[in-house]
Amino acid sequence: MKSRIEHTEEEWRKLLSPQAFAVLREKGTEPPFSGKYNDFKKRGTFVCAGCGNELFSSDTKYNSGSGWPSFWQPVSPDAIDTQEDLSHNASRTEVLCARCGGHLGHVFDDGPPPTGKRYCMNSLALDFKQD
Questions:
Q1: Is the backbone peptide bond immediately before 31 cis, with ω within 30 degrees of 0?
Q2: pLDDT in tens, 54-102
Q3: CA separation for the pair 84, 65 (Å, rounded)
Q4: Phi and psi, residue 97, nearest 5°
Q5: What are the residue ranges of helices labelled H in the chain?
Q6: Residue 120: active-site member
Q7: pLDDT of 1 higher than 60
Q8: Would you give the DSSP letter of residue 30?
Q9: Strands 92-97 and 103-108, sheet pairing
Q10: Secondary structure of the chain: what % helix, strand, coil (to 5)?
Q11: Is 52 left (phi over 0), alpha (psi -120 to 50) or beta?
Q12: Diameter of the chain by CA atoms?
């Protein structure tokens, strides 16, 4: 991971589309089955749409049936941060970009082997670098 990136809310608004800002900076969620990476099959690396931090390899992407791109592990433990999310009257684990703090999605314990994790991400929070 590269050095930490910090911007003011105004700077983020200029850098991101309104939709990406709503997800990355305001912790929004795109509707299920609407994201460009849900059924995406190309090989490469998914990076943070806010800062370019490498997050997930296409080798760990799988079809969870949830309607959001899902991965069973990040490219490295240092690529992401997690924190408890008590919104929507539920206890979930939020996934954040470790470089810019952008909201990416949530992680659940119902994924496939070998990790048993489902990193359920918003396409609007991701960009893609093809191999």
A1: no
A2: 999 999 999 999 999 999 999 999 999 999 998 878 889 999 999 999 9
A3: 24
A4: -70, 130
A5: 9-15, 18-24
A6: yes
A7: no
A8: P
A9: antiparallel
A10: 20, 30, 50
A11: left
A12: 41
Q: Which CATH class is domain 9-130?
A: mainly beta
Strand positions, DSSP E, 39-125: 44-48, 54-57, 61-62, 70-71, 80-85, 92-97, 103-108, 118-121
CA dist., res. 131 & res. 28, Å (int): 29
Determine the length of the chain: 131
* pTM assigned to the model: 0.94
Amino acid at 58: S
Residue 118 corresponds to which tokens in the numbers above? 């489902």
Over range 95-119, report the average pLDDT.
Answer: 97
Spell out the residues 6+ positions from residue 104 whose beta carbon is closer than 8 angstroms to its own: 24, 48, 55, 80, 95, 96, 97, 119, 121, 122, 125, 126
125 CB-side CA count, 13 A:
30
Give the tokens for residue 51: 């800062």
